[in-house]
Amino acid sequence: MIFNTLDKKEFEIVELLRFFAAFAVMCVHIPSIGYGHLGVDLFFIISGFVMMYSTEHNHSNFFLKRIIRIVPLYWTATFVLFIFALFFPSFLLTTSANFIHLIKSLFFIPFEKGGEHAPILTLGWTLNLEMYFYLLFAISLTINKNLRGVICSFLIFILFIYFHSSDSFYKIAYGNSIVLEFILGILAYQLIIKKEFISLENLFYLTLIIMPAILKLLSFPMISDLLLNKFSARVYSEGLPLFVLFIGLLWMFREIKIGNIFILLGGASYSLYLLHVYIIFFIQRVLIDQFNIFSMNMAVIIFIMIVCVLMSILSYLLFEKPITKYLRNKLSS
């Protein structure tokens, strides 16, 4: 997702927020907790902010750099899980060795599995939306770098309306109002970095965010059901409160140094986000279900959290960081 480090040091708080977002999503998948889905919304807001921030002075090879950051770990984890499904199908619950699903997962193409938007790697659905955002942002950069936020936000909104009004499966993916949270991140950049509190550009972003609600109130026939369920209204119920919290934290802690340990945890947030589901699944299926070593209690929950964080740090230091550095050096040369 937005797993990249900011160039300047005054917003180290973003690193900590990235870790908290990944940790929150991890808690969703820990038995007896099951809450923390707001981490995904926070990730999308941070993503809009970071993409604007990181391209202010250097936007060369933008899309290629995003691929270098996202693809290696995602593809590796996807291939490993696919091979596991191929040779040990009974061990997994819903994942099967479907080659069509594999190709679509690798190239971030949404598909339906069990009535849900669920690639081979469970949380890959959010990466599908991230890559979708990166593509639109790259197009916007090509058209006009200075207006990249306006152009990208407009594209997100128009495509959201189009997909939400369609009857295809893509309504579940690109017609989910969670995609509008990228616009909230772009607006956060305007407020915190540009320090533009009252401007036509900010009014434009706000209009795009509230327009679906206005269309609903006006009973616009194409999307008359837009606010009838939580799925459609996520940008309002989760996105807007987190947006207020995000800009508040950035404003208060913009010059606070958070320490190297939290920088490390922020760097490892991508590994934590992608891999925790399978670490938890392995612990539960092998150590609890099969060997009955312990039952699910507070000590086990803390143990699971520690293992997930430690494994993500190892993944970051031994795989993510070296691969990203190597590929970026190849790109620069």
Q: Your description of this structure?
A:
- The chain has helices spanning 13-28, 38-54, 62-87, 99-106, 124-143, 148-164, 170-173, 181-192, 200-217, 234-252, 260-267, 269-290, 298-332, and strands at 112-113, 116-117.
- The chain is mainly α.
- It has one domain (13-332).
- A hairpin with a 2-residue loop joins β1 (112-113) and β2 (116-117).
- The chain is globular.
- The model has no long low-confidence stretch (mean pLDDT 87).
Short description:
By secondary structure, the protein is mostly helical. It is built from 13 helices and two strands, in the order ααααββααααααααα.
Q: How many domains in all?
A: 1
Instruction: Give the fraction of residues assigned to helices.
Output: 55-70%
Structural class: mainly alpha
How far apart the termini lie comes to 26 Å
Number of helices: 13
Rg (C-alpha, Å): 20 Å
Any idea what the shape is? globular
User: Reading side by side through the largest sheet, how are the strands ordered?
Assistant: 1-2
Overall pLDDT score:
87
Proportion of beta-strand residues:
under 5%
Largest sheet: 2 strands, antiparallel
Number of strands: 2
Low-confidence stretches: none
Series of H and E elements: HHHHEEHHHHHHHHH
